[in-house]
Amino acid sequence: MLQNIEIETGTNPTHSIIWMHGLGADGNDFVPLVPELAISNKVAIRFVFPHAPVQPVTINGGMAMRAWYDILVPSLVRQEDEAGILKSEQAITALIEREISRGIPSENIVLAGFSQGCAMTLHTGLRLKHRLAGLVGLSGYLPLAQSAPQHWQDANRKTPIFLAHGSVDPVVTIDRGIATRDLLVANGFDVRWHTYMMPHSVCPQEVDDINAFLESVLTLRA
Fold first, then answer.
1. What is the mean pLDDT of residues 37-48?
2. ∠67-97-136 over CA atoms, to 5°?
3. Which positions are catalytic?
4. Best exposed site among 60, 84, 179, 197 by fewest CB in 10 Å?
């Protein structure tokens, strides 16, 4: 089981949000966001912030850091670490299964992530056999996109997907996000697309939009 940070906004949580960080960060990265989400005052939520494993990252000269998978080339998608992505998928799925075993219905679980964490959110969520409340993908993209559709499960065909991207992102350029959006829309997914004048980061308006999205998908299943 991945090491993780847990924050519960009330006793006996009825909902869970599993939030994956970006390359080189750790689970602490999005902990400060919890008090900014008003939804946490309306339903009892267990936030789970897992730490990715520490591993060498090729694009960073082989330096060891927390990463969900190796980044091999600057273009991100021309050559991908499929084995690493699949290994992290298994680890994240185990976290989802644990929440279900703790009494949280899968329909009350949101999977979220930033950058690499966004990639793992989309990859894992769309292949999952359990229906989720929603997916939140920030400043990222869908990995293994060419072969992805053949692995998608029907469980989350109608699950709302919040996608957001900075228009001047120099790390994961917005064309990667747009390509992901277009692929998902073409395959009939319910994508809520947002762009912001920002680099590879999170801005206040985005937090407001995330909060509204979470409220819409979680309170409906309270």
1. 89
2. 55
3. 115, 169, 200
4. 197
Domain count, the chain: 1
Q: Tell me the three-class secondary structure of 50-66, residue by residue.
A: ECCCEEEEHHHCCEEEE
Question: What pTM value is reported for the model?
Answer: 0.96
* Per-residue pLDDT tens digits for 111-142: 999 999 999 999 999 999 999 999 999 999 99
Is residue 88 predicted with pLDDT exceeding 60? yes
CATH number of the domain that residue 136 is part of: 3.40.50.1820
Alpha-helical segments (H) within the chain:
82-101, 116-127, 174-186, 204-218
Per-residue three-class SS string for 5-36: EEEECCCCCCEEEEEECCCCCCHHHHHHHHHH
Domain, as residue range, for 175: 4-221
- At CB < 8 A and 24+ separation, what contacts does 123-128 make? 123/85, 123/89, 123/148, 124/88, 124/89, 124/92, 124/93, 124/96, 125/156, 125/159, 126/151, 126/152, 126/153, 126/156, 126/189, 127/89, 127/151, 127/152, 127/153, 128/93, 128/96, 128/153, 128/155, 128/156
Instruction: Tell me which DSSP letter residue 220 carries.
Output: G
